[in-house]
């Protein structure tokens, strides 16, 4: 008995030591592995959704009403950005029963097949191909470039997008070139540039271990950021097409966003009939990570 206890204790100590070593020498990889593990333990599964891979959390019962929610990441990001929304963590409200959530990895991202065309409307068509076979109607939330894609999805598939949540969305004409500057950083990321971007993107930037930066930059470089930048077209801006969005629309904006300033939120509101702005003071460009309670409230709160 004593020998078994000693062996068990040694096993625990070895696991703790291995974890400490991994955290010290590979903090980014360890952090991502822990997030993936949390998703699995939380009942979130990796699935194929038409041409895309996705994380799925299905709390719908056969034969019962089911509300379908799609989550669309931005440029250089991945579906993992929505983990707190899917799990109800970090202050986020857990998704209610009767909800199917699909957080997609857009073309060329983390296992999803590359695209022949990374134009915004082409990506919106790919997104539709992933969603349409699953549900007839969707609530679609998109962050940054994912908001731009989601906006076009709502324009081109009005019968499929019942509700739209634009989260610090790109897609409007931008004489100041804030969005273009951010896209250029992500298309050719370096450690110094990403440190500066991180400081702009978060209202309350958290310290990042120095050892994590190289792996974080490598993960962005593995995604099709340059191809997306090269595929951006002036005719794909949403300014003149927002009037065609029929979905009930919430424009959720981190008020401390240094990437896309909050003035863009008001421009979206003026363009989409009946829309409303929910400004989150002190929050940056990625509310789903920094202020996840605001995203879950917009998706699942009263009146949603």
Present the secondary structure layout.
Blueprint: H1 2-25, H2 27-41, E1 45-49, E2 52-58, E3 67-72, H3 83-87, E4 99-105, H4 120-131, E5 138-143, H5 145-156, E6 161-167, H6 178-187, H7 191-201, H8 212-221, H9 225-231, E7 248-254, H10 263-271, E8 276-280, H11 287-290, H12 292-300
Q: Which tags fit this structure?
A:
about 300 residues; alpha/beta; Rossmann fold; 8-stranded mixed beta sheet; 12 helices; globular
User: Structural class, please?
Assistant: alpha/beta
Number of domains: 1
Give the helix level as a range of percent: 40-55%
CATH 4th-level superfamily: Alpha/Beta hydrolase fold, catalytic domain
Count the beta strands.
Answer: 8
Helix and strand pattern: HHEEEHEHEHEHHHHEHEHH
**Overall form:** globular
Taking pLDDT < 50 over at least 5 consecutive residues as the criterion, the unreliable ranges are: 4-25
| Largest sheet report | 8 strands, mixed
Average pLDDT confidence is: 91
Separation of termini?
A: 57 Å
Figure out the total of helices: 12
Q: Give the CATH architecture.
A: 3-Layer(aba) Sandwich
CA-based gyration radius? 20 Å
What percent strand?
A: 15-25%
Give the strand order, joined by hyphens, for the main sheet.
Answer: 1-2-4-3-5-6-7-8
CATH domain topology: Rossmann fold
CATH class: Alpha Beta
Describe it for me?
Helices cover 42% and strands 16% of the residues. It has 304 residues and is an alpha/beta fold. It has an eight-stranded mixed sheet, sandwiched between helices. The N and C termini lie far apart (57 Å). Residues 4-25 have low confidence and may be disordered.
């Amino acid at each position: 008995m004593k020998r078994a206890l000693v062996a068990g204790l040694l096993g625990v100590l070895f696991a703790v030591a291995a974890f400490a070593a991994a955290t010290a020498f590979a903090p980014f990889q360890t952090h991502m592995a822990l997030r993936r593990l949390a998703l699995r333990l939380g009942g979130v599964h990796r699935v194929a959704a038409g041409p895309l891979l996705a994380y799925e959390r299905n709390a719908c019962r056969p034969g019962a009403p089911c509300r379908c929610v799609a989550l669309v990441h931005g440029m250089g990001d991945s579906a993992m950005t929505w983990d707190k929304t899917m799990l109800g963590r970090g202050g986020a409200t857990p998704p209610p029963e009767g909800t199917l959530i699909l957080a997609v990895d857009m073309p060329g991202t983390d296992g999803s097949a590359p695209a022949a065309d990374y134009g915004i409307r082409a990506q919106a068509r790919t997104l539709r191909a992933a969603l349409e076979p699953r549900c007839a109607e969707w609530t679609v939330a998109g962050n940054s470039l994912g908001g731009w894609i989601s906006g076009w999805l709502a324009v081109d598939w009005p019968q499929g997008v019942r509700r739209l949540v634009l989260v610090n969305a790109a897609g409007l004409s931008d004489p100041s070139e804030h969005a273009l500057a951010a896209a250029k950083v992500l298309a050719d990321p370096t450690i110094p540039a990403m440190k500066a971007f991180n400081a702009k993107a978060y209202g309350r930037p958290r310290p990042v271990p120095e050892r994590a930066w190289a792996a974080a930059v490598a993960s962005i470089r593995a995604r099709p950021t340059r191809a997306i930048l090269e595929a951006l077209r002036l005719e794909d801006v949403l300014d003149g097409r927002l009037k065609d969005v029929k979905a009930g629309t919430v424009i959720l904006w981190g008020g401390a966003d240094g990437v896309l300033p909050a003035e863009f939120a008001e421009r979206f509101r003026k363009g989409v009939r009946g829309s409303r702005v929910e400004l989150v003071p002190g929050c940056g460009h990625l509310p789903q990570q920094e202020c996840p309670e605001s995203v879950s409230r917009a998706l699942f709160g009263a009146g949603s």
